[in-house]
Structure formats: structure tokens, C-alpha cells
Design goal:
By secondary structure, the protein is an alpha/beta fold. The protein contains eight helices and 15 strands. The strands form two sheets. Strands 1, 2, 3, 4, 5, 6, 7 and 8 form an eight-stranded mixed sheet that branches. Strands 11-10-9-12-13-15-14 form a seven-stranded mixed sheet, sandwiched between helices. Strand 2 and strand 3 form a beta hairpin. The longest helix has 15 residues. The two termini are 37 Å apart.
Length: 309
């Protein structure tokens, strides 16, 4: 049986089990093994074609991994010390946070774990280039007015990677038009403006003064739900971190997409109480969509969309 591993976002194992319902054959900490390949939004990382291998020693495990490829990340809910010793015998994988908008690592990064001292699970090909899918960018502690910029930087990076644009080419560019809904105090607007894009930030509350002063930023006071999409013309990037029920966000997004004038979208689905799996599936079903849990998301998913050509 060919198995695929899904490493749940920390604290969201139940949501991942719901996505994989009927396909989970085993669990190992946050790693759920399934008999199907599923585009799972609540998986921080996906391990493809998981293999189980008998090992005789720490050195034997390291040798077998190195024979497959160079770079590996250890996930060790059990036998942590032994897994660490194996990792120490492998080529070093840098844990240094990347700089946003810089090229991301291109070399394959596999993952392994120990089921027992003499049994190892491993996957040479994983969905994320970051260990365990944990995107931790170098932080800017002075510029952005809130920490919301961190999940947005990850969302934009993953949008670029998953839609084939690459980094930095697939990020918002100078001269592009961006609409930031629910912008205040301006963390997302700050990211867009620093990339050189032109931003209209919409919120009832004003932006932080330092963000409002960035060239190319315009604040429009009002509700995101009161806007007439037809009045805006072409929008290269529709961005929303609005606090609302996901179903209401879906209706908002559908109005904008109906104009045919939006090229890309990055929006946060914020779940209040129970996870609204039905609305999440509706977002995922929109052609051109990716639905992902960002490392810096809470009980949220990020919707990454590009207009199909």
C-alpha cells in the first residue's frame, strides 16, 4: 500500500482528521498516514510516498537516508534522542529564517521519523521546502504595526510557489494595483507597499500613521462589504483579513470574482467556534484555488487564488 503522510498544523489534528476522513490508516503524533493523496488544507506538510525501513543502528539509519538524498528533517514525537543523533550524522540543514521576498530553498527536503528504535518512516519528497512546513521569516520589529504581516508574508510566498510564479517574481510587483480589505492598522498594506505595489486600504478605522505615509498607499474609510466591485476596475491583488464568518467572506469574494477584473487573491478564513468545513470546501472548489493553514495562522485558513488563464 502506498501511503501519504500529513503532518497536522500544531493543535489542529481534529480538523485534519476531518479532511482525511475514511483514509487514515495510522497516526504517529501529529503525522497522519493515509491511503490517498488529498490536497489537505490543515496539513503543515505532506509527505509523499512514505516508506518504512528497518534500521540496525544510528549510523545505519543515517547511511540509508544519505543514500537517497542529502537533506532531511527529523520529526520525533517518540525516540527523540535517537532521532536527533541520526540527524546529527546527516548533512546540516539550516534552520535560519529566510528573508521575505528572497528566493526560497530549491533543494528537496525529505522528512523522517522513528516508529521504534529499529524502524524508520521516511519520505524523500515533501510538499514544503521548510522543515515541518514551519515558515519563520526574519522579523521586522520596527516597520509593521501588527504581527499580522507574518502570515501575509507566508501566504504571498506560498501563493507564488504554488501557482508557479516563483519568488520573488510571483509576488506583488511595482505598478500593480492592490486592494486590502479590513486593513487597519495596516500590517498587510505595509507588506504590499514595501514590495512597491499601489495599495488602496479599506477599513472603518485609520491606518497607523507610518503606514499611511508610505508612497502609493491610500486609505478609504468604510466597510469592505459596502464596496461596489464594478467601481474599482482591474485589481491585481484582492487581499482580505476581515474579521467575519467564512460564509460572508465567500459571498464577498464571489462578488469580486464575478467582475472578471481580479487577477490574484489572498484572504483569511477566520473560524469562530466550530470549523466551517462546508464553506472551506466551497473556497477550495473555486478554480485556481489553494487553501492552506499558514504557520502563523490561528483557527484560520488562507485562501490563495489566481485567475485561471
Amino acid at each position: 500500500m502506498t501511503l501519504t503522510g500529513y503532518l497536522a498544523a500544531d493543535g489542529f489534528e481534529d480538523q485534519l482528521r476531518h479532511e482525511l476522513a475514511g483514509h487514515v490508516v495510522a497516526e504517529h503524533g501529529r503525522l497522519l498516514l493515509a491511503d490517498a493523496v488529498i490536497d489537505a488544507a490543515w496539513a503543515a506538510n505532506t509527505w509523499f510516498d512514505v516508506q518504512e525501513t528497518a534500521i540496525e543502528s544510528i549510523g545505519d539509519a543515517a547511511a540509508k537516508l544519505k543514500a537517497i538524498q542529502r537533506n532531511w528533517a527529523a520529526y520525533a514525537p517518540l525516540h527523540h534522542r535517537r532521532a536527533k543523533l541520526i540527524a546529527e550524522k546527516l548533512p546540516h540543514v539550516s534552520a535560519k529564517p529566510p528573508v521575505f521576498a528572497a528566493p526560497v530553498p530549491a533543494a528537496p527536503l525529505g522528512s523522517f521519523t522513528l516508529l521504534a528504535p529499529d524502524r524508520m518512516l521516511h519520505a524523500a519528497h515533501c510538499a514544503s521546502p521548510m522543515p515541518h512546513g514551519e515558515w519563520r521569516f526574519v522579523e521586522d520589529r520596527e516597520g509593521p504595526p501588527s504581527r499580522a504581516y507574518l502570515k501575509f508574508q507566508e501566504a504571498l510566498t506560498r501563493h507564488a510557489l504554488e501557482h508557479g510564479g516563483g519568488v520573488p517574481g510571483g509576488l506583488p510587483q511595482p505598478g500593480q494595483t492592490c486592494l486590502d480589505l479590513g486593513a487597519s492598522p495596516g500590517g498587510w498594506t505595509w507588506v504590499l507597499a514595501k514590495l512597491g505595489a499601489t495599495v488602496t486600504a479599506v477599513d472603518k478605522a485609520p491606518l497607523a500613521p507610518a503606514v499611511a505615509a508610505i508612497p502609493g498607499v491610500t486609505w478609504q474609510q468604510g466597510s469592505a462589504f459596502a464596496l461596489d466591485p464594478a467601481a474599482f476596475g482591474a485589481v491585481d491583488w484582492l487581499c482580505s483579513d476581515v474579521i467575519c464568518y467564512p460564509a460572508r467572506l465567500l459571498a464577498l469574494v464571489q462578488r469580486w470574482l464575478a467582475t472578471g477584473q481580479v487577477r490574484n487573491a489572498v484572504c483569511t478564513l477566520k473560524f469562530q467556534g466550530e470549523t466551517d468545513h462546508e464553506t472551506a470546501r466551497a473556497f477550495a472548489a473555486i478554480p485556481g484555488s489553494r487553501l492552506r493553514h499558514m504557520h502563523n495562522n490561528k483557527h484560520e485558513l488562507s485562501w490563495l487564488w489566481r485567475r485561471p488563464e
